[in-house]
Amino acid sequence: MLKYMASLFKRKPKSIACPYCKNSLVQQTSPLVCDRCERDIPREYSDNASVAPLLYMPVIGWTNVGKTMWLYSLVRTLDFLTGPKGWKNSEFSGVDAYSRDLIIEAKKYEGKKGPLDGTAVLPGTPFLFLLKDMPRWGSRTLVFQDLAGEPWHNQWFDKNKDTKEAALYRQQLVDNKSVMMLFSIQDMLESTGDGHSMNSLIETYRQVLRDAGSHIEAEKRRILVVLTKSAKIKRLAPNLLEYLQADPIARKRNETESDTTPVDIAGMADYAGRMKAVSDQLKEWVTAEAPGGNRFLTTAKNLNVTVDFCLTSSLTQTIERRNQQSPNSARRELSGTIRDIWHCKRVLDPLFWALEMHNGRGHRR
Ligand SMILES: Nc1nc2c(ncn2[C@@H]2O[C@H](COP(=O)(O)OP(=O)(O)OP(=O)(O)O)[C@@H](O)[C@H]2O)c(=O)[nH]1
Ligand SMILES: [Mg+2]
Ligand SMILES: [Zn+2]
Prior knowledge:
Layout: H1 2-9, E1 15-17, E2 24-26, H2 43-48, E3 54-60, H3 67-81, E4 91-94, H4 97-109, E5 127-134, E6 138-146, H5 156-159, H6 164-175, E7 178-183, H7 185-190, H8 198-211, E8 222-227, H9 238-245, H10 248-254, H11 268-289, H12 293-302, E9 306-311, E10 313-315, H13 338-341, E11 342-345, H14 349-359
Parallel strand pairs: 3-6, 3-7, 7-8, 8-9
Antiparallel strand pairs: 1-2, 4-5, 5-6, 10-11
This protein binds guanosine-5'-triphosphate (GTP), magnesium ion and zinc ion (ZN).
């Protein structure tokens, strides 16, 4: 009996989730290795896992919509936000060498002149970032998978069904019930006849999930629609443009050195409230103006998927990729560096949305 009582109080070995495949790991070996995906678990993650739960942010969208550029601008803005003029007592760091390198690369990129390279199709290792002691949201380990856009074009999934790449993509989509879908509306309006409409992306998403055996309607899925390159959208409603331009964090970042007052931490609840109100306004705008926007929402509704909206702008000017230049547009060269055209407006909103959804505060329907 005593032995039984003692066993009740004996501490169970701590179990944490593998940040790569969500497998439940019991912390016994050191260094810790996942027995399902066979990856080494970074020490920085396992040490913080109990205080910084995982937050997955898979990003999908056609090629050239600005997924990687958004990641760079997010990383630069988080670096600022956790610095002396930002949240002050919060920390932002890469969990492994690979993610730390991205933070350094993003900083170096500001001094460069050219465009980014397109992302390779084979999904690589996700980036892992530790965000410690944020106001309102506490600590999280961000898992960021920058998926290439190419598989969303030209029936790629049908043509590449049995490849390793397709299997990895499908797994990403099946495993993550919340995804971010990035769209560049102005590019969609300007390109002629490539068949891209917002609805066609969600239709492919539905097809891929169905082929993988998912019963979407029963899964309480969520999509965060992120409109990228927003400053470029010519017919954006004035209230939405005003919201974009009035980003208090971007403003703080661009203020002169002499102003040392930090970002208003108490204001984060207001920020989140405004962001949610803007989501409703964006929904209306998308329904009326975006190619395939109305049908996108109908498809989402039929699939029982909750949709929220936000908008971002990383750059004030586009620097086209060599292979993606349209035949009649002159190739635009950048006279200065990326730093000169860094806009970084509302680039934190998708992250704040993910945090709000994770907290269960974002549910409105
Ligand atoms: N004006 C403007 N241009 C942008 C913005 N973000 C990205 N771009 C341009 O869009 C191009 C493509 O951006 P990427 O981030 O590489 O696109 P991607 O979605 O990662 O594309 P893939 O990796 O091929 O799937 C860049 O060369 C930028 O010049 C933005 O916020 N505003
Ligand atoms: Mg990319
Ligand atoms: Zn694993």
